[in-house]
Amino acid sequence: xxxxxxxxxxxxxxxxxxxxxxxxxxxxRLAARGQIEGIGTSPRxxxxxxxxxxxxxxxxxxxxxxxxxxxxxxxxxxxxxxSSVLGIGHRVVHGGSRFxxxxxxxxxxxxxxxxxxxLAPLHQPYNLAAIEAAFKRLPGVPQVxxxxxxxxRGQPAVAELIPLPRDLRYAGLQRYGFHGLSYEYIASVLxxxxxxxxxxxxxxxxxxxxxxxxxxxxxxxxxxxxxxxxLDGLCMGTRPGALDPGVVLxxxxxxxxxxxxxxxxxxxxSGLLGISGISNDMRDLLGxxxxxxxxxxxxxxxxxxKEIGALAAVLGGIDGLVFTAGIGENSPEIRQxxxxxxxxxxxxxxxxxxxxxxxxxxTSRSKVSAWVIPTNEELMIARHTGLLLGxxxxx
Length: 395
Ligand code: AMP
Fold this sequence. Notes:
alpha/beta, 2 domains, Nucleotidyltransferase, domain 5, binds adenosine monophosphate, eight-stranded mixed β-sheet, single chain, 16 helices, globular
């Protein structure tokens, strides 16, 4: 019988999961990938094996995240037997200043992670609900939390600083950075993909529904565009990115919005959706002709190019630019626009390589080499989980 590490990524309406196996002498290998979507509306379980063959595609009776984990546990038992899951790795978006690396979960850790819910209201509650449910539905299986913030710890003090009074800073007000599992994965594969830039100055653009940039020096994060919460930096699907804090004061004082209304506005109604009034989805917007859709795309590119300039200043110049996540991996148009805006850095795009998704999308003359590298946060979580639980050597 094979033994597996289960990776869970729980969101507000979906539970995504991957099952990894570790054949003797090899690295972690994907065995199955699936999700329960439509939690709370019309939930459906779909699972494919590593080759894309359908293993399950069925309606399930699931009302919330707890029941989704229960349905997944039942499916795993029916397909793989009772004791095949050796460990569970969870994506947890916020680890605060306390959790600087993957951590084995227990009641105490869970309690501390609950205190961080207000800092990531869109993600953290669902991440924690999946952990609680897994303790109940897969009892005895050790669980590990892998944080989106951890990879950024160790940044210079000025990069983490929020310039407010000291007592507030000591109470935890600092820039944390997110998408760390994605950046850590990219940093881990760069030595194979492009040894030339792996040890030098690289900006990674994680452009998906959530979007951010990370400045890597010698494979380590030295700055990033997301800060105290996942609202800062680039324009995102429904989040505005960097905003004059005076705007937030005006929403409260001038427009008399409530805390809940402002939170909803900032996390769910702004960004691409807010600008266009049409969609939060880049693919949709690229297919539309309305000027509002065009403006949303233009602003997305403008902010990305502007922040690349800022991080290039932090790094003292750049040697490489890497695109990843849904938009970064799949949209030649957005990559083209961003790369053109980075011409002043010496980046010259290879148009046909870009259309073919690279992996290298810059010309041989380009001073900055540009790449498309698919991210794999789940594999990163499986590696951490295996290592921490002693399931196997690092893959
Ligand atoms: P993620 O959050 O990483 O899954 O990325 C989701 C985003 O990627 C959405 O805005 C999608 O519209 C976008 N996306 C996926 N495929 C494409 C594509 N072919 N062209 C443009 N955007 C895409």
